[in-house]
Write a structure and sequence with these properties.
With 283 residues, this protein is mostly helical. The chain contains 11 helices and no strands. Helix 2 crosses helix 4 and helix 2 crosses helix 5.
């Protein structure tokens, strides 16, 4: 890519604007993908059992058009501008005045901030777009897991394979580091899962967590697997304790680990391997 063109479109400010638009799309993914998967599971289960069910309305990432869940008002294009529309509408539906969650502009601003950080970290070069894509998938996975305690294979497995392919093409890290990163990521949490289950008889995490950490290992290398887990554990403990103190974590419920694995991976990505190893005294 021409340097002048890269400096224009791949600088942190330009990537932040791009991130606002991608963040708006991620809100759709977080909301609709679990619904689409659940619909498919219901239909497949009914066919396997030979029973008839009321087939839910078809839903994809593009259809039907976005609408207010309370009154059914179709969202106009000018009501769907990232952040600006939410502020202009004062966080309420233009038709029925039902409150619109502040999480929508939060996801948009978070994506913009992280895209800008990636631009600052890697500079104005095409590989920055690759890392932005990786960050976008992590945001979507974190949001879905927080809502549903589900890390869908539709996102974790493509993220894993994309990390290995990017490495094989020489775009990220050497392939052996990516390959063993995927292996170390999966087996580390898989081992913890079975140790916990054999000891307590309970399941401490889902298989999606194994796949997510494998994907992070494929992108960041086997050396970063332990720092990611340590960072995720600290983040999860802090958030869990905070929710407990604010009585927003009900008895018997747990905080999903996926959002904190994603957060740990993003922190390691932006900090860089040498800085992270230095923090741990392993440099």
């Amino acid at each position: 890519m021409d340097k002048e063109l890269a400096d224009t479109f791949l600088n942190p400010f330009a990537l932040a604007l791009f991130g606002l638009c991608i963040g708006s799309f991620l809100n759709v993914v977080i909301h609709r993908l679990p619904m689409a998967l659940e619909r498919g599971w219901k239909i497949d289960s009914a066919e396997m059992l030979g029973v008839k069910i009321d087939v839910p309305e078809p839903i994809t990432l593009s259809k039907p058009r976005s609408r207010c869940p309370s009154c059914g008002h179709m969202i106009a294009w000018h009501e769907n501008i990232p952040v600006i529309s939410w502020l202009r509408l004062r966080g309420r539906c233009s038709a029925c005045k039902t409150r619109i969650s502040a999480r929508y502009p939060f996801i948009e601003l978070l994506t913009a901030a992280l895209f800008a950080a990636v631009g600052w970290r890697f500079g104005a070069q095409p590989v920055a777009l690759l890392w932005c894509a990786m960050v976008a998938v992590l945001i979507a996975l974190a949001g879905i897991d927080w809502d549903t305690t589900l890390l869908p294979d539709n996102l974790t497995l493509p993220l894993l394979w994309a990390g290995l392919v990017a490495s094989a093409l020489g775009w990220t890290l050497p392939l052996p580091l990516a390959l063993w990163g995927a292996v170390a990521g999966y087996l580390s949490l898989w081992s913890v899962y079975w140790l916990f289950k054999l000891t307590t008889g309970k399941e401490g995490m889902g298989f999606g967590d194994f796949k997510l950490l494998a994907a992070l290992g494929a992108w960041l290398g086997w050396q970063m697997v332990l720092p990611i887990v340590l960072g995720a554990s600290v983040l999860g403990a802090v958030v869990g304790i905070g929710m407990k103190l604010m009585s927003s974590l009900r008895e018997g419920r747990y905080v999903p680990f996926g959002p904190f694995l994603a957060g740990g991976g993003i922190v390691v990505l932006l900090a860089g391997q040498q800085r992270v190893l230095g923090w741990l005294g392993w440099a």
